[in-house]
Amino acid sequence: MIDRLLDSARRKVDGADALWRREEQTAVAFESGRLKAAGISEEAGLNLRVLSKGRMGVAGTTTAKPDPDALLERARASAELGEIVDLAFPTAAASKLPPIPTYFDRTANASLDDLIALGRMLVERLARPDCQINVAVERAVDETAVGNTAGARGAYRGTGIAVTADITRIAGDDVLMVYDQYVGADMPSDADLEALVRSIETRLSAALTIVTPPDGSLPVVFTPAGLAAVVLPLEQALSGKTVLQGSSPLAGKVGEVMFDDRLSIIDDPLTPGRPASRPVDDECVPSRATGLVERGAVGRFVYDLETAARAKTQSTGNGRRGVFGKPHIGYTNILFRIEDGMHGAHEARHAALPATLGGGLIENMRDGLIVDDLIGVGQGNVISGAFSHPVGLAYRVQRGEVTGRVKDAAVAGNAYDLLKRIGGVGTDGRWLGSRWSPSLLLEGVSVARR
Amino acid sequence: MKDRLATAVKQSRADYTEIRVERTWSSAVAFRGRRLETATVSEDQGGFVRVLNKGCGWGIASFTSLDELPAMVGRANELSHAVRMDEPIRLAETTQQVADAELDLDGDVRGIQLGDKKKLLEAYNSAMLAVSSTIVDTQASYRDEVSEVWYVNSEGAMLYQVRPEVVVSGTAIGRRNGTIEKGLESIGLRKGWRSVQGFEERFRVVAQRAVDLLDAPRVRGGAYPVILDNELAGVFIHEAFGHLSEADFVYENPQAREMMTLGRRFGKPALNAGDNGAAAGLRGTLPFDDEGTPTQDTPLIREGILVGRLHSRETAAKLGERPTGNARAISFRHPPIVRMTNTYIAPGKAGIGFNDLIRDIKLGVYACGAFGGQTMLENFSFTAGWGHMIRNGHVAELVKDVVLAGNLFQTLDRIDHIAGDFTWNQMGGGCGKGGQFPLPVTEGAPHVRIEEALIGGDV
Questions:
Q1: Which residue, B191, B214, B237, sits at the end of a domain?
Q2: What pLDDT digit, counting tens, does each position of A69-106 carry?
């Protein structure tokens, strides 16, 4: 498909690259403990980018048998309005691909009954009186092909499986929701499923007691899930696009120590067993790891081909594209490495979660919070680093013990200030979606209660 | 197309079969700063099949290759049979409709040159950039679509709908030294080209606000009397209350049902709220939902009392109520689930204005505009675009980082005054639920006063 399209493009425009992707998903859903629905989805699409008279244009289609000439014509019409960009497509020689397993037979071959059995096992393990449990199991198998008129080609198959479970407990007007997930390229092991069950059980039982929230400037343990509000501003600021636009607070700070000097953050598309891993990005750039933050200093920003060309630097292999629209910057796997926190991410994959909350960081805490979920993350002025959110799920810590769940409280702070000094690193490092991190103890977080 | 779907439905061996096919023509233009990001035309198309059998659950298939339609009906049937259920899924009765419903295209976007769309957006983008040299970055986007939707089910429904949509939105980023602030404008309409002209001033205003916010202090966290402007009050009723009134939250959950018992008091007698998918000309408006049920105005709160909820055919059957036309899917890639349409707080007495709400507030917050909102059932958060302190009955200094955190029941009960100045706020973006985002919805409200609400921020 791609070869024919690119051959045709070579004759009509200055250069082109394309992505073809086919995805098949199978999903089963348990609602309130009962298997309720099973579904499949099949989707294939083709995305083309052209350079015509120095200008860039794009077009995409989900048509089953796309007409290459029609697609090319639309891309060329788009380029007529497009900006001038000095884009250099990677050549065949530059695109030798690193080996990385992305396709797992066990995942691809799992039958509908296997997926149902997996969900049913979780429903049974997690069932308890007065609680509603929903479980979803989703398996994806995909094929990707990328290529360009400079001769580079890349193709790979991938698998992914996501198992999510949530428990809702309503008592009077109190609504408690506890949620967790396993996401991987390979099927979950027994230990992975055990970790999922224990994670939900631990957080649920500690939440049954409701206590008054504390008030003031306090130490807060952000769990790997709770860290989202702190991580999001950094993800935005480390994008080459934001830097190019002049809106990144980290622009011009490469090499400067902006964070606790034990903190490193890596984007690594070559992490084994992760669904976001791949040998090549969606613009034919071979995958490699990028040090975003290195021992507290700003490392490298991530770029795709276009932003790299405009910033006069190299793509970091973070190009991502859908069927419609032009390629954009996307992170792959983000890993937090903190020096005195032991553990590389790789060996942590099968580690069961500890049955206690707080990742071992609360022993010496006189009064503070464990924040596992905040409401409204991503709203507001994210790029500035400032955040202020009511708690979705948070626990009070008093004299080194979790005393119960707090409600009607809001936490606020600035990610840049808080990450200047990390008070402690948890022993509970884990994957959450495509991010690996332990819990972090951060000090001086504003906590307001009603 | 209708015949093709009718044939496929007839050949289905399932007890109930529905097929939805969509063909969407869309174009998009985007600027970032002074630079054009994209200008493209896209065509997306695909189908969705959902079947049900006695003693079995839903079997679902979605696909981009329409040639596969008969095979996909068969696959969905197999999937349904794999889902064994003790308690059968029932669907509430609706009058099955045969209709063609083409909404007013108001200047068919398919007939406008891409270059003209670029010019329009460039004008709005330039209006933001021209405000000040401290506007260091902008994002502006124009998107339109015309979606044709065919729907046929085995109970006799046969519908063809044409749904237009057009959205222009802009973000202006102001920066001075380390301080970064933004202003946001977004206009989303179920209309066409003619309806998005002449908005330069609105884009200029948000860029000016981003500049003004650079010098504004952060609001001090704590509990205050709060007045919500029309836009934020609309986001509030959608986020904080609307999601709880979606019946899929309660229909399988006895405790939730108890919490949301019809007849329960939710607020003071001044409070009236509802959801109206049949309102004329709004972004959340549709003649029929994605199960073929006609849309309607559904009262949810009347004089402070819970009186209704939003249904699909499945949730209505389970609760012994009537479908309300709220089963919606964002595209053929998804099943219909219970969603809002145009959700509103009804206006208070005519003549009650903003001044009547603010007059006796010594120290409070006037929260305006919305960057977004999220609910976690009884708890919600919404982020105002900006705010002003209220001092001694008057609007005082501009403040930033105004985030309202709250508990639904307490907050609804603390709404003590509702003005008569109702407006619909037709924004772009949309609502997200169950992985389906963005669904076009509208929110409407007058100015609303909350006796006391928690504002997050520095303490």
A1: B214
A2: 999 999 999 999 999 999 999 998 766 789 999 999 99
Alpha-carbon gap, residue A304 to A320, rounded angstroms: 8
pLDDT surpasses 70 at A392: yes
**Segment holding A292, helix H or strand E:** strand A290-294
Pull the structure tokens for residue A376: 């409204």
- B contacts of A77 (beta carbons < 8 Å): 41, 114
Of B33, B62, B381, the CB nearest to A389: B381
Query: Which of A398, A184, A394, A346 lies closest to A277 in space, CA to CA?
Result: A184
The minimal CB distance from A450 to the residues B137, B223, B459 is found for B223
From chain B, the residues in CB contact with A380 under 8 A are: 371-372, 383, 401, 403
* CB contact A384 to B (< 8 Å): yes
User: What pTM does this model have?
Assistant: 0.91
Same domain (yes/no): B332, B359? yes
A340 reaches B (C-beta below 8 A): no
* Of A176, A207, A238, the domain-final residue: A207
Contact B273/B244 with Cβ under 8 angstroms? no
Same domain, A214 and A203: no
Give the total number of structural domains in chain A. 2
- B373 lies in which domain range? 222-456
Using CA atoms, how far apart are residues A84 and A75, in angstroms rounded to an integer? 15
Q: Which of B215, B138, B177 is CA-nearest to residue B386?
A: B215
A236 interface with B at CB cutoff 8 Å: no
Q: What pLDDT sits at residue A94?
A: 66
Mean pLDDT, chain B cut into blocks of 10 residues (459 residues total):
95 97 96 94 94 96 95 97 91 93 91 96 98 95 97 97 96 90 94 96 98 95 95 92 93 90 95 97 95 97 98 97 97 97 96 96 97 79 93 97 87 96 92 91 97 78
Q: Are residues B303 and B190 in the same domain?
A: no
Å between A173 CA and nearest CA of chain B = 6
